[in-house]
Amino acid sequence: MGEFELIKYIQTRLARPLPESVVLGIGDDAAILATPSNQHVVVTSDTLNAGVHFPRDTSAENIGYKSLAVSLSDLASMGAKPWWFNLNLSLIDLDFDWMEGLLDGLNDAMDGNDIVIIGGDTTGGPLSLSITAAGLCGPGKALRRDGAKPGEDVWVSGSIGDAACALQHMDTASVDLMARLNRPTARLELGQKLAHDGLASSCADISDGLLADAGNIAARSGVAIQIIAADIPIADEVKRLDPNNALKYAATGGDDYELVFTAGAAHRNALKNLSAELNLPLTRIGTVLQGQGVHLLDADGAEVSVKSPGYDHFSST
Amino acid sequence: MGEFELIKYIQTRLARPLPESVVLGIGDDAAILATPSNQHVVVTSDTLNAGVHFPRDTSAENIGYKSLAVSLSDLASMGAKPWWFNLNLSLIDLDFDWMEGLLDGLNDAMDGNDIVIIGGDTTGGPLSLSITAAGLCGPGKALRRDGAKPGEDVWVSGSIGDAACALQHMDTASVDLMARLNRPTARLELGQKLAHDGLASSCADISDGLLADAGNIAARSGVAIQIIAADIPIADEVKRLDPNNALKYAATGGDDYELVFTAGAAHRNALKNLSAELNLPLTRIGTVLQGQGVHLLDADGAEVSVKSPGYDHFSST
Lengths: 317, 317
Prior knowledge:
globular, CATH 3.30.1330.10, Phosphoribosyl-aminoimidazole Synthetase, Chain A, domain 2, homodimer, alpha+beta
């Protein structure tokens, strides 16, 4: 199989009916898109490198799934509806079985999310996937990081720290916990509801770790964020598997792809209802304050110190 | 310098005034864009890997320049006006001087092309740059590969084979010839004029080689393309440096980033005038015929055989 056959094969395996908004898909120097009227376009981009973003022995299925899921999660955190993505794939060599797995995983991530592939490229090189994805959102509706205001509540979806715990306990973690690492669910429905109904004043997805991502909201909004450690929703299995590190996983482990968002107290009931409607826990974990930075507090109100927040690719520590 | 400082630094060094159409640029989970009314969006994506797309000892400036120039060339071949790009950058380590060079090169490629950076990411890994770029084009105006019709002329801009010759003769090539390899000019003005004035029926940029890229037009349009070898514009320096391989460079060498396009005979005068206006040679090199494939003919009308057309990253030959 050569490069042209590979592109043809990827195109065939990932094929979906193209919406009218995709005027020209794969097969030219570029794709052509007609933005639906009165919609803004939300664009995000992520690279996943073997040995950096996933262990080298990760299954092709999980690599394929996760490479798209992380971009879908960025769209979710903006409250956007998925539209298209492109895939830039670097491969050391062409292994047909491996490609089958990768495309199975990508298909799993696409399923139900109404997204189509419009292009990309394939090339030789160390295993790496770079995806740019776009979504649509009503003008002024997107959830940004810069809208948090003092006095508001801080919320998270789902449970936090699962992925980091699973990564450390691959041999003993349950299938469900491993799926939290390898098959994260982008919270698209939640993000879109929050954006459409104007329930959240700011939002980010938890990819680098709760403290790091809440810290981005704090920095962009010019506020402080206080988080009550005991209120962070941690899965029972995580507490059981590694009680001493459960809080560290929750506070600094990334890769959960839950949403952290801020909302006025007036929306507490609406958020409770939304949680029930989506069958997804939404938990109030803290408060927006004047000031700066993220502050994790214990039961006595004293600041808890956990290791460096989030993952820095170039940090020397 | 950590990852966050690096992103801040890239953002500062590549900063341009944001047009109104960029609602939110770098700094959130995604960018937000407002597509100008009655415009289609053209999207292209390319990855450049060290040791594959450029020699490992290529200067940072040239890597930076070329990584964006190849995407601009794809926009040119569609007839689109550049709008935004994002940059996914994988680095083994952080070398400040090297980053300075990379950003200088990117700035050079941005200058005069009215394009802004809206996002991307930086991560550890083997040196690789992946860029997605978008442009704007009037609905129905984009130059596609699938519009060539029998009886039309085949044209190319500039001279062909320069980059391939420069790559083989780095020690003896002139500064100007080396610039054709390292600092290619995306033919944006040409592409936009061809699209706007409806002069071309199909178009591609010459990135994989003239025969390969003309072959893509032939395949997508369901036609044959005949090229007269003697009519291909080859630079005097290429003929002088390597007379035995000049035709091979022109026919199969990629990386020239000139445009190959088809146009009805009625447009010959308009194209002559456009060539003068842009101060860019436009040369008629062949004819669109019924049939399939690309056929390179010598002075006697016999088919010339040159080595495999274009570069296949996974070909075993």
